[in-house]
Write a structure and sequence with these properties.
A: mainly alpha; 14 helices; B: mainly alpha; Methane Monooxygenase Hydroxylase, Chain G, domain 1
Amino acid sequence: MGWRMIGNPFGWIQQQLMTLLTGWGLSQAWAAAVLSLVGAVILATVLLVSTFFLIWAERKLLARMQDRLGPNRVGPWGVFQTVADLVKLLGKEIVTPAGVDRFIYYLAPLLVVMSVVGIWAVIPLAPGVQGTALDVGVLYVVAVGAIGELGILMAGYSSNNKYALLGAFRAVAQLVSYEVPMVLVLLVPTILAGSMNLEVIVQQQSPMWFVLVAPLACLIFLITSLAENGRAPFDLLEAESELVAGFNTEYSALAFGMFYVAEFLHAFTAGAVIATLFLGGWRGPGAETYPILGFVYFLAKTLVMWFLSLWVRGTVPRIRIDQMLAFNWKVLTPLALAVLTTTALADKLALELGGNRLLTNLGANLVVALVTLAALRAYARAQRSKEESQRIGGLVTAAPVSRHH
Amino acid sequence: MHEQWIYVAFLLPIGVLLPGVAVLAGKILGPRKPNPVKGTPYECGIETVGDTWVQFKVQYYIYALIFVVFDVEAVFLFPWAVAYHQLAFYMVLEGVIFILILAAGLLYAWRKGVLEWM
């Protein structure tokens, strides 16, 4: 009791429940299964309830960035705004258009929420507190995250609406394209830690967080997770001021609310995944002895990354789909491949020749970054001189660069 | 090893059930007044013309194809990455050559003009 309980509330609760269950006569395996069930229910509930806070915080922060106040009527500082929205959405009619494929239509928002909640099964919240320490944790995160794309396609397909279908196609094209650099870059922390298990990756970050060893990989992963989430600048998926609502045009009330919840929760989940893979998860001074401190560090890092993605959302404008896909296939994928090969080679050379791992990896990243910047500069110069020659050359074209619409 | 997945087997169905219960509550609590106008697909107010399931551009298919190639490559690379610390240098070099072969494939697709949107 006393400090041990406060220092490690998760372990204490787990112990108490185990003794209770085995006291009732269940064997070890069954008691562990029941504990898993209880843990899963608690995690899913806490996540879905925390979206109330996240949506409110996002609206307030975005409002401040746009020089306005945000919700401030319902409750002190507008905290109950999301609750009010939920009550309103509960009372609206779920208008189901004629001719929709009912089973898929109702399953789609559920799948999208499930894909986000499922990622939290493998994230280590504190030393020893993790849903399950899967040996294929990294692959599991990618796989479950990809179920969300399936949900989006199901939503657009079943809606009996041409433009929802086209919106769903474009959404899937974007999401599937940005999976490629994401999966390639996820190999970098796997290489550095020697395991796909997220708990092992967090433990291996003991002298140095992976963001310091592989900053380019962290940057690429940040960009691709913004694109996977559908946040600005990549929020073509439901460009609220352009197409009506893309794939979820025909959804109303709480079915739409589920897509909304999944989007906001995904931003937080992406922050948690980045914090685990690159920022050291629950690592921090005193985290091993007092696991509650580890949880606090994890939460702080996740909130910082979530705020960063929010900041980007409030700052940059939307980019067109052809610009977005060109950026992915012509810049991000070659960059991800380059980062992967140089990290693999540099790390192995440092290990064999006994050099300093940190400096070798940083040097390799710097070289890749400089080469990329030089290549981009050369490309920009070539584009600019082409525009000049087109304009000066006598023939006045309608728009200087008109190959892409 | 299989007991690792019990938690996932619990969490994923709960992840489907909880929003399912919410949508069901919405269905029960909300009004239900269908009429033919509400049932038509929404196209900013104009009437729809033609079938709903349109033909789609081949470009979507090509992006999906390139995605499949790189996804399978990444899946092949995961065991190489996990065993990284036990590998000799020439083994790492073999993995790098594999990546470079696929990068050459990407370059070929780029030069062929396959990666353009239109």
